[in-house]
Amino acid sequence: MSVSQPLRELISNCSLPANEARILLAHLLEKHYQLPRSALLSRDDMSLNEQAFQEWENLVTRRVNGEPIAYILGKKGFHNIELQVGPGVLIPRPETELLVDIALNEIAKLNKPPRVLDLGTGSGAIALSIANASPLASVVATDQSAEALAIAIKNAKSLNLTKQAQFLQGSWYEALIQQSQFDVIVSNPPYIPNQDPHLSQGDLRFEPSSALTDYGSGLSCLQAIISGADKFLKPGGLIAVEHGFDQSESVVDLMKITGLIDVQAHLDLAGHCRVASGRKRP
Ligand code: GLN
Fold first, then answer.
1. pTM of this prediction?
2. Which of 28, 107, 126, 177 has the most C-beta neighbours closer than 10 Å?
């Protein structure tokens, strides 16, 4: 029994912005009818069956209540891969692709199979997109959250990257054996200061606070990662970290104080310095 209005009316009568309504509806068309997104146009007179219509109403309510689209769909595209995501992990952001590209650029210059470390891997976004783009790379990824690691491992399995990526539980470098050394260390740690009003707005309200803020000035995790890097970098190895749009100067200073050389601030597509990198002396 068809109970809904035609698709075009579901979209135009929906309380959500049309682009969001289309994303949710495309998801349901794929799930219930194995139809591609283009069916939103080519079959716009189609009605949803009772089960799909109930789910539509449920998804719209969740979104109206502010839940991020990525959690509602259970997935998010990042770099060249798709990751499963849920409330236990940060939703990967497009800004973070800059960090992946910096790591890949460095990897391309190495003449032996690179060893890469991703600290605070969350969904595995950075580690897995590097492993995916660079089949010779071996990647170690750590996170202190067991829930996050379970999601990252699930992603590694569905992307067929379990041979290349290893996941360890612990805070920053804690889980590594002492002698491990890497060509590249990357991290997108929690860097939002605890007083920042953004933490109680938009998608961030639904994401794990431990993935967003250091519960302090915003710089403490960055500092721990930068100051611990020397021991785990090969001579000449590169560390690159993401930070907030107003933290570039502080992070560059932290890298210089630690004795890293060739310290650079990197601009994202929006023109903000969002990544800093430095190198261990050769
Ligand atoms: N590395 C993951 C990402 O960039 C998680 C980061 C985090 O939880 N702060 O998406």
1. 0.94
2. 126
